Amino acid sequence: MSDAVLATQNLVKTFGALKATDDVSIDLRPGEIHAVIGPNGAGKSTLIQQICGGLKPDAGRVFLNGQDVSHHDTRARAQAGLGRTFQVSALCMEDTVLENAVLGAIGANRAVWRFWASALKTRELTDRAKAALERVGLSEHHQTRCGNLSHGERRQLEVGIALTLSPRAFIMDEPMAGLGAGGSKKLTELLDGMRAQAPILLVEHDMDAVFALADRISVLVYGKIIASGSIDDIKNSDVVREAYLGQEA
Ligand SMILES: Nc1ncnc2c1ncn2[C@@H]1O[C@H](COP(=O)(O)OP(=O)(O)OP(=O)(O)O)[C@@H](O)[C@H]1O
């Protein structure tokens, strides 16, 4: 775990009698995409929420760059370098692409709020937002109202907003959801190029994307990690086939 950018240690979350995450220890190493897969209700979102600080675990800890952030709230974890995209879009549809990205950049530095009126800070934020939009291929769309973007472009924008935070690690919750083949391909290429900048913990149902991107895969079933390894390890695992992949066939 020592070189892990992000690590969980024995995370447990129960809802009544249900163990949504059951002793989950998982890590994310520099430069990698680590995919977490599992059937509906396996506990993937619950795990992500505990990592990001939206849900308090019953037991276990979360480390970011070796620092115990278990008692940090969501904002403090973001400030410590945890970048996130959401399963449900959090974009402001009435605002332009650039405005959405600048709002994301504000989240990067709380102190900036105090200087929001300052032209210099505004310039810094705008430059950072523009750089992130260029990175995700949305330079042409600065003044486009977010509501007028395609579904795929909104996903690109969400990734761009996460980039404005200069994260040390990304958490992505089903970024391919609802995208057609073209959108998935474009986003897959984008994520592929981002792992060098910050490793990605990727929760994803789209197995084509998972197999195209993952350096490692962990399989979550009934709240437990039942297998973890390379794509081949997972594809050839009888345990996984029985518990999960077999259902997809
Ligand atoms: N707030 C809650 N209260 C009660 N039960 C919950 C709550 N949140 C999640 N659960 C239950 O915990 C289990 C894990 O849910 P979770 O949403 O984490 O699974 P998931 O793997 O993300 O599923 P999906 O792939 O469908 O998004 C499910 O049985 C779910 O019904």
According to CATH, the fold-level topology of the largest domain is Rossmann fold
Q: How would a crystallographer describe the biggest sheet?
A: 6 strands, mixed
- Global Rg: 18 Å
End-to-end C-alpha gap: 34 Å
- Any idea what the CATH architecture of the largest domain is? 3-Layer(aba) Sandwich
Low-confidence stretches: none
Total number of strands: 10
Percentage of β-strand residues: 15-25%
Please, what is the average pLDDT? 88
Bound molecules: adenosine-5'-triphosphate
CATH homologous superfamily title of the largest domain: P-loop containing nucleotide triphosphate hydrolases
GO molecular function, one term: ATP hydrolysis activity
Keywords: ATP-binding, Nucleotide-binding, Transport
InterPro entries: AAA+_ATPase, ABC_AA/LPS_Transport, ABC_transporter-like_ATP-bd, P-loop_NTPase
Domain ABC transporter: 6-247
How would you describe this structure to a colleague?
This protein starts with 5 loop residues before the first strand and ends with a helix. The protein is built from 9 helices and 10 strands. It has 2 domains: about 1-80 and about 165-249, Rossmann fold (3-Layer(aba) Sandwich), CATH 3.40.50; about 90-165, no CATH class. The strands form 2 sheets. A 6-stranded mixed β-sheet has the order 6-7-8-3-9-10, with helices on both faces. Strands 2-1-4-5 form a 4-stranded antiparallel β-sheet, covered by helices on one side. The protein is globular. It is an alpha/beta fold and about 250 residues long.
